[in-house]
Specification:
Number of strands: 15
Helix content: 10-25%
Largest sheet: 7 strands, antiparallel
Structural class: mainly beta
Strand content: 35-45%
Number of domains: 2
Number of helices: 1
CATH class of the largest domain: Mainly Beta
Oligomer: single chain
Radius of gyration: 25 Å
CATH architecture of the largest domain: Sandwich
Shape: globular
Distance between the termini: 87 Å
């Protein structure tokens, strides 16, 4: 009988050790949720403030600017960030007992205090399902949400090319054109693969986006097209979507959506 009690005690001890090891293992492999990122304004003319938050004991938020990847050596967040230039802020949460979180990001864009765009004419028109606010909505400096359902800012297209004829309010010096697009691949929405900018029939800017076909998380993205620096009064912007959804996607071979909500002249 004593032998049976001894074996039972050993079994219970082993079970307790196993449970404790399981808890420790669970803590080691459990990833943290990403931090919250909030900006006072995505578009700003002088300064914007970005706040990062994550409410969990002993958690540390680390961040980077200018789009650099976040790692253990990145800066530790301790106070709101006051930014005076366009930049990409990325962040992760770290904790001694858990895996780090996924990386999240937000992009803020500096704009002119003056309204630069007079009129935008689109060819073709946006889909009836996602009409947005027409050309006027592309220059109102109001950002569409990443959760696009019911958001009137986003214009959706399924076309070989999308052309935007832009008239400026006056002759102004321009060095960059920024296109705000949405990537939400689970809903068949892919970023453009190429953007070209013309002035009076002459190409003055181009941006290739080879990452358009790569699997990525959902996010609103700003694509900056460098322009031959000069004084301009009009542009034609030609947006080239992917020809078809790539092989890795469940919608492979079909026509992807392109979502646009803003064009910014810098």
């Amino acid at each position: 009988m004593r032998t049976i009690y001894t074996l039972l005690a050993l079994a219970m001890l082993c079970q307790a050790c196993s449970s404790q090891n399981s808890i420790n293992a669970f803590m080691e492999i459990f990833p943290l949720s990403p931090p919250q990122i909030n900006a006072t304004s995505i578009f700003f003319d002088s300064i914007t403030t970005v706040q990062l938050s994550f409410d969990f004991p002993n958690a540390v938020i680390k961040y980077s600017l200018k789009g650099d990847e976040v790692n253990h050596n990145s800066k530790v967040y301790s106070a709101p960030l006051e930014l005076t230039e366009s930049t990409v802020i990325k962040a992760r949460v770290y904790h001694p007992d858990y895996l780090e979180s996924e990386e999240v990001q937000i992009e803020v864009v500096k704009t002119s205090t003056k309204k630069t765009i007079q009129e935008i004419t689109l060819t073709p028109n946006a889909s009836e399902n996602y009409p947005g606010l027409g050309g006027a909505g592309l220059g109102d400096l109001i950002k569409g949400a990443e959760q696009f359902g019911g958001d009137k800012q986003w214009m959706g297209f399924q076309a070989d090319t999308i052309s935007a004829a832009i008239k400026l309010n006056s002759n102004i010096e321009v060095s960059t054109l920024v296109l705000s697009v949405l990537t939400n691949q689970s809903n068949w929405i892919f970023a453009p693969t190429r953007i070209e900018v013309f002035n009076e029939g002459k190409k003055v800017g181009v941006l290739s986006n080879p990452n358009s076909a790569i699997e990525t998380s959902s996010r609103a993205t700003f694509l900056s097209v460098p322009i031959t620096k000069g004084t301009y009064s009009e542009f034609t912007v030609v947006v080239y979507p992917l020809s078809e959804i790539p092989e890795w996607h469940q919608g492979k071979g079909t026509t992807p959506w392109v979502f646009i909500d803003e064009i910014i002249i810098q």
